[in-house]
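Reopening: SPRY domain-containing protein still failing for me.
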Amino acid sequence: MLEGEKNKFCYAGIGFNNDTPFMLMSNRPINFERLYQTSSWKDGDVFGCGVVFPPKKESKILPYVFFTKNGRRTGNKFSLKGDSDNLRPYFHLLLCSIEINFGNDPDNKPFRYNVLKHNI
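Support: Ran it again with your exact input. Result attached.
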């Protein structure tokens, strides 16, 4: 969940590593050099970031990153290149706060996005 300071320019970025695709959310228009995807937000919106490693039999499909907003996929998926088995969560914030859910308590804090219904 994302919340910003009132009447101040705020943004948050989520992704895996700082050199792979990420999503940047802002409460005002923003120009960012390495932008892959943007989204507006309001306090309480829930954003997610996932990575898919296709089955080995699907050798033509590269691993990819996808993003969600309030439980729905948003934007494009981004293929991962190079060393995609060394991914770390990445958060970039300015004047806002986030609550992070890594999925370690699915009974009490389930993901908003249903990963079981995700299609490769």
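The chain has a mean pLDDT of 75. If you still see a failure, please send the error message rather than a screenshot.
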